[in-house]
């Protein structure tokens, strides 16, 4: 398998990444804590029929769980509510390691957690400058919004970008200065890359 074009282009992919698989979130099952026991379905066109259909049951201890039948094998996933916080966070258990997770990934004949499948986050294969770019763009979007012109353009200087309406000047300067400091770290990477390209030319 060849990786998509970018800084990895031409290298053979040896890792499997989370973005390559559809995942189910624990929050999707929260309504099942109070609904009648029985058969249900996950509303997702990206999942196979077996990965969508589930049966809601409850054990003798009152713990609810769902069962998916995939490739004629049952995959039991318990629904466990964390009562230690006010948010009552819901966890789903991995059918293989039985650990509480927020997400499970749909693979060909199963549901399993990232660790059991051996999946990696794409960010784990990023170069330092790519992680830095992603961080800068994230902070820019948090401050000016996703639809702000040139929010992704790393050649644009943010120094003269306006303060968002309703934000206190002190808060704005603090957030903007943080982005500016990260951009100062980023530019030496660019200069180094340009120098290498100039040498090749």
Report on this model:
The protein is α+β, with helices and mostly antiparallel strands and 201 residues long. It has 4 helices and 9 strands. The strands form 2 sheets. It has a 6-stranded antiparallel beta sheet. Strands 1-8-9 form a 3-stranded antiparallel beta sheet. Helix 3 runs antiparallel to helix 4. It is elongated, with a radius of gyration of 23 Å. The two termini are 30 Å apart. The relative contact order is 0.11. The N terminus and C terminus are likely disordered.
Relative helix content: 25-40%
Backbone CA Rg: 23 Å
Number of strands: 9
Specify the biggest β-sheet.
Answer: 6 strands, antiparallel
The helix/strand class is alpha+beta
| Helical segment count | 4
In short:
The chain has helices at residues 49-52, 114-117, 128-144, 169-200, and strands at residues 23-25, 38-41, 53-58, 64-70, 73-81, 90-93, 100-101, 103-107, 110-112. By secondary structure, it is α+β, with helices and mostly antiparallel strands. The strands form two sheets. The protein has a six-stranded antiparallel sheet. Strands 1-8-9 form a three-stranded antiparallel sheet.
Sequence-ordered SSE layout with sheet pairings:
Blueprint: E1 23-25, E2 38-41, H1 49-52, E3 53-58, E4 64-70, E5 73-81, E6 90-93, E7 100-101, E8 103-107, E9 110-112, H2 114-117, H3 128-144, H4 169-200
Helix pairs in contact: 3-4
Characteristics of this structure?
201 residues, alpha+beta, six-stranded antiparallel sheet, three-stranded antiparallel sheet, 4 helices, 9 strands, elongated, disordered C terminus
């Amino acid at each position: 398998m060849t990786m998509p074009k970018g800084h990895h282009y031409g290298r053979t992919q040896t890792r499997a990444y989370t973005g390559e698989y559809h995942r189910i979130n624990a929050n999707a099952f929260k309504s099942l804590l109070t609904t009648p026991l029985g058969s249900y379905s996950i509303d997702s066109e990206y999942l196979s029929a077996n990965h969508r259909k589930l049966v809601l049951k409850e054990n003798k201890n009152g713990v609810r769980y769902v069962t998916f039948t995939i490739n004629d094998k049952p995959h039991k996933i318990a629904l466990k509510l964390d009562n230690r916080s006010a948010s009552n966070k819901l966890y789903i258990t991995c059918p293989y390691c039985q650990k509480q997770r927020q997400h499970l990934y749909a693979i060909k004949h199963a549901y399993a957690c990232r660790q059991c499948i051996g999946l990696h986050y794409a960010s784990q294969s990023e170069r330092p400058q790519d992680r830095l770019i992603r961080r800068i763009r994230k902070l820019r979007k948090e401050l000016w919004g996703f639809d702000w012109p040139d929010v992704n353009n790393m050649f644009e200087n943010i120094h003269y970008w306006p303060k968002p309406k309703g934000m206190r000047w002190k808060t704005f300067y603090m957030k903007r200065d943080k982005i500016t400091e990260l951009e100062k770290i980023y530019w030496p990477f660019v200069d180094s890359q340009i120098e290498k390209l100039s040498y090749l030319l």
